[in-house]
Amino acid sequence: MFAAMAAPVNNPDHGFCRDCLTFQRSETRRCERCGSPRLARHPELYRLHLAHIDCDAFYAAIEKRDNPALKDRPVIVGGGKRGVVSTACYIARIHGVRSAMPMFKALEACPEAVVIPPDMEKYVRVGREVRALMQALTPLVEPLSIDEAFLDLSGTERLHGMPPAVVLARFALTVEKELGITVSAGLSYCKFLAKVASDFRKPRGLSVIGEAEALGFLAEQPVTLIWGVGKAFAASLERDGIRTVGQLQHMERGDLMRRYGVMGDRLYHLSRGEDDRRVHPDSDAKSVSAETTFDTDISAMAELVPVLRALSEKVSARLKKSGIAGRTVVLKLKTQDFKLRTRNRHLGDPTRLADRIFQTGLDLLRREADGTKYRLLGIGVNDLSDDDKADPPDLVDIQSRKRALAEGAIDTLRGKFGKKAVETGYTFGKGRSTNPPEPIED
Ligand code: TTP
Ligand code: MG
Ligand code: MG
Questions:
Q1: Where is the UmuC domain (predicted)?
Q2: Ligand 1 contact via 109 beta carbon (within 6 Å)
């Protein structure tokens, strides 16, 4: 869908629609295709790759999802022993309710609010579901809390066929559709500003802070914007006459370090939008997977196999990119009536090869191709490790060794000329069939 629009993506004047993901040719205020006013435009929109995603009013959004009667009511999640607000929905926030507020105060501000005691088990479960969808975008996902994470989407454009900004917008739509809650995302060139951006236009926001505007933007902000500057530290800065980030921009590094030690160094760099911290993937990331929900349910092997192949290649590409391998292959199927089937196969050695993932998945799939109609197919690996012991030359099975060598050659060609440079027999022609199942989420 977006791939066809790749060329104009280089033109920063052109944005895209966050609802139908269509590229916009002119500077209209509404989408040329669907009329939505939710257009993303920014001179650096297609160059930035560092994202921060945070769910909107997380606990409250989950409670509203699970009880539609609460949709238009002010909802507060909290109470219990500590008697404070965990979070409030955006309707309750209009009345002044905030996280960490004593419940009696919150109810003074908003007496009509519905108060729900927290169900942590449920929130953890949804948090994991959100994270799994993030990990399908890039292996570089660094969770910060139950409802947020940094994602480094650099180098994923080829994989997704669209730039990171569009991947983010699509992710937001997927979360809404699949999990029934909403997220906001920030896109920038560094962690600091990506996180700042995600908080900008909540809920359902997508905000961009580019390199060119960083200094000017930061200059206007209060010092509390900077990571680690809480109330107490802000007060001591204030005593020194420093209120804005702009003031910090005019101070020397040595001076700041003399006054505030290591924190002075941070103030110096962050005030100038300098932040080279990398995204460190979740050290206990348990799996790498890719999945597709079909437009119409499918039962025929002939149709499922090319999809399985394409998904295996995606999983493999992610493993190779992050230098990891998996020892167990997991096939996931969702039936027409939303029943989930997962099937595992433990391998002798960890693998990162598309062909091994595919062949193993194929074997598992054959047993499930019993005429059942499926709405979703997924493949992945878990038992992750570094790839140094992955795919040892298999002297017994000459065929698999040949395929591994061929895959290495294909990877090299694709690295040079792009993903479409080499099509395998399984995926070749897929795009030309009359009604190909279009992956909506990977
Ligand atoms: P946040 O992401 O800080 O807040 P939020 O998701 O509720 O709202 P926003 O749209 O502004 O992001 O925190 C995530 C969850 O963590 C939140 O839903 C409830 C919990 N939480 C607490 O229990 N106590 C707190 O003081 C805060 C800030 C959050
Ligand atoms: Mg949140
Ligand atoms: Mg959060």
A1: 50-230
A2: no
* Ligand 3 centroid from CA 155, angstroms: 26
Any binding-site annotation on 54?
yes
Distance 286 CA to ligand 3 centre (A): 22
Residue 134's alpha-carbon distances to 128, 139, 285, 328, in angstroms, are 10, 8, 11, 21
Q: Is 188 in the pocket of ligand 1 (CB under 6 A)?
A: no
Place of tokens 């927290």: 118
Cite the active site residues. Answer: 148
147 is in an annotated binding site: yes
Supply the pLDDT for residue 415.
Answer: 66
Q: Give the number of the ligand closest to the Cα of residue 86.
A: 1
Atom 12 of ligand 1 has which residue's CA nearest to it? 56
Tens digit of pLDDT for each residue in 278-289?
998 865 557 899
What are the backbone angles phi and psi of residue 134, rounded to the nearest 5°? -65, -40
CATH number of the domain located at residue range(s) 58-121 in this protein: 3.40.1170.60
Start-to-end CA distance of the chain, whole Å, equals: 14
pLDDT (tens digit, 9 = 90+) per residue, 311-352? 999 999 888 877 788 999 999 999 988 889 999 999 988 999
Ranges of each domain in the chain: 3-55+123-211, 58-121, 215-271, 287-432
Q: Which atom of ligand 1 is nearest to the CA of 203?
A: 10
| pLDDT over 90 at 77, yes or no | yes
The correct answer on CATH 3.30.1490.100 for the domain covering 287-432 is yes
Ligand nearest 57 Cα, by number? 1
Residue range 11-50, pLDDT digits in tens: 666 899 999 999 998 888 999 999 999 999 999 999 999 9
pLDDT of residue 361: 98
Q: Which of 186, 170, 163 is nearest to 133 (CA)?
A: 170
CATH superfamily, with its number, for domain 215-271: 5' to 3' exonuclease, C-terminal subdomain (1.10.150.20)
**Structure pTM?**
0.67
Q: Does any ligand 1 atom lie closer than 6 A to the CB of residue 204?
A: no
Q: How far apart are CA 255 and CA 439, in angstroms?
A: 54
Q: How remote is the CA of residue 250 from the centroid of ligand 1, in Å?
A: 34
Say if CB 63 and CB 71 are below 8 A apart.
no
Closest Cα to residue 218, out of 196, 241, 245?
245
Q: Is the predicted pLDDT of residue 242 greater than 90, yes or no?
A: yes
**Lowest-pLDDT choice from 188-202, 207-221, 224-238:** 224-238
